[in-house]
Amino acid sequence: MSDLMNTLGQQSKRAAQQLSQLESAEKNDCLMQMAQDLENSSNTILAANQQDLSRAKENGIPNPMIDRLRLTGERIKEMAEGIRQVASLPDPIGVVEKMWRTEDQLMVGQQRVPLGVIGIIFESRPNVTTDAASLCFKSGNTVILRGGKEAFYSNQALVELMQQTLRHSQLDPAMIQFVNDTSHDVANEMMRLNEYLDVLIPRGGAGLIQRVKNSATVPVIETGTGNNHVYVDHAAQLDMAISIVANAKAQRPSVCNAIETLLVHEDIASEFLPMIEEALTPHQVALRADSRAMSYLKQADLATEADWATEFLDYILAIKVVASIDEAIEHINRFNSKHSEAIITDSYHNGQRFLKEVDAAAVYINASTRFTDGFKFGFGAEIGISTQKLHARGPMGLEHLTSTKYIIYGDGQIRE
Amino acid sequence: MSDLMNTLGQQSKRAAQQLSQLESAEKNDCLMQMAQDLENSSNTILAANQQDLSRAKENGIPNPMIDRLRLTGERIKEMAEGIRQVASLPDPIGVVEKMWRTEDQLMVGQQRVPLGVIGIIFESRPNVTTDAASLCFKSGNTVILRGGKEAFYSNQALVELMQQTLRHSQLDPAMIQFVNDTSHDVANEMMRLNEYLDVLIPRGGAGLIQRVKNSATVPVIETGTGNNHVYVDHAAQLDMAISIVANAKAQRPSVCNAIETLLVHEDIASEFLPMIEEALTPHQVALRADSRAMSYLKQADLATEADWATEFLDYILAIKVVASIDEAIEHINRFNSKHSEAIITDSYHNGQRFLKEVDAAAVYINASTRFTDGFKFGFGAEIGISTQKLHARGPMGLEHLTSTKYIIYGDGQIRE
Prior knowledge:
16 strands; 2 domains
């Protein structure tokens, strides 16, 4: 282990003890100050961002990626507003979820406590820095942030600014830390920093998630890959189905809660498929259909086996005609990434079966998968969408960044 | 990856789909039948156990370990009773923990579902086989069991028996599987079987837990190490303190919820330490004291720095005199394994501080740490005691072997 990661780990762990004991008001005051300092220091941040942008252009980084990297006065305002919103959320720490009396007359309560030290490995968007840092801070966790090299200067400037606010608030600046080395070696060390990290959350593309999953011995929460489906049942209201499929595919195809494959019951395929093709045409969605679906479509390519397993994140939709809800559920459970799945149906029985039998973080009847989102679920925040089953599944808000401890009130009880 | 682990993984994953859809009554009937079949086949099990015992004696395995390995008619009855008790517990699967209406008028419910496939790596006691298998089965999870080589024949016979019951119940026998290879290589493969295993739970000594923690890329739930403390505050009722310390240390020192270190406030050390020495004498507890504590004790060795960090699991107690509750909390948070900690005090303020500031799965006021136990907490079962913060912390019952999924009832909602 390099000195860098060991030092960051030790400092974060020490700071976690102080942070876990802060009152909500202290945390909120500090967050409000961070937002203010961020707005006041726009110029510093924009200058650092300019360094990243210049380097990106030199390196021939594609334009959409440069756009994601670019900060503006407006975007910095939004980041500050994001921090203020986190400050306004209820503090999960200290809440006793339940309390009961045992047979031995002990009062046992389960109380929310911070996880401790959270590692975040993320890719280009610099707004993840302030988002993640404020959520970790509010939930009583120190954080070690390791961003991508493209946004290095922006991320570093943002963290330095937040550390300055911490210092001015008489708090340990190590509550929010930055890994100022973007090499793979250091990232790999972070994935094995079991002594100091309580959890590691990768935020980024499928490649990053896979790399972390294969290498990390620190507990990981996988986020984000969404190979999602809408199944249009024979008993669907077709107008509703069209509106939902168009929304789930084309409203914002680059996000993880968009869909990639449409499954259509054979009884309605001849009527529905031409309708959905027409509805998707204005969005220029390319269709990749199985042979049966092809016969009802004007313009489509033949889908390959690989298409069923691909998260396109683009204006591409795979389409398959199925003979039954059983075939739909089987296809979904085979190919999905356990993120978000929807059935469109007026059949009570089929809706209930779909909810019960489909394995995913979020399963919908008659709604767009695009609602899988911490804000839309009412959590007031989102650190990511977990696609694993351990600890947290689905959209993660502040509560999902906590653990619990049992607090037990006795009166001299001993065990016989 | 070897064929063995790949095949087991595939089979378990396929069986998990069937198991996740079983009704509670089907699961309970099958468990009751397993218990019956186990009792009816005592002789087969005892014969297999005899093979393990003979080999253990040949290999010069120490007697206490042979005792843990030994099955008797009585022990088999207890194992069967254990299975029946699991059958009688409420089924956690399908429970909707909460349900709410979002701003978009979606009804979102959080429903308990199985984790999927659970791997268990455990050491010598064969009763873990039926315990773990019945808990996993009841909570809708398939299980891959990899026991130690000492109990190989017993474990194998037990799993074969349970698989036979599954077959007779028209269920896939792959719901409960056994790794019939006790090599380290295969254990290491199991720790990296991310494609099929949803979680890995090691059950055994600190060495095993550490090995799994350092090697596994599959999500792990750490269980069991307990370097626990009782802090006797200056405001303690000394008779209560003696009864609790004696219970926590000497009632059963080999278990993870026993204590290893006693911390005593300096104001009461001269009165309390001779009393506790007298109380522990009948149990032949060896004392390892710091220099201040030594001066109040008749017979004690000087504690080394390493003693504070050691889980003795034996009739050994480390003792330290502290100047304040602050020093006690600091010592505990530095050396403990985050398992169970207790303060004995009549001071309301100190009790509350201890609960808030001590970092452990279970923190007690005025009770023995020996209550950290799924049965004593009222969960009706226990698969282990988690000492990590992710997913589950403290005693784990059936509910802790589950995940959740969001089920969402819509009415055509799309995202703007």
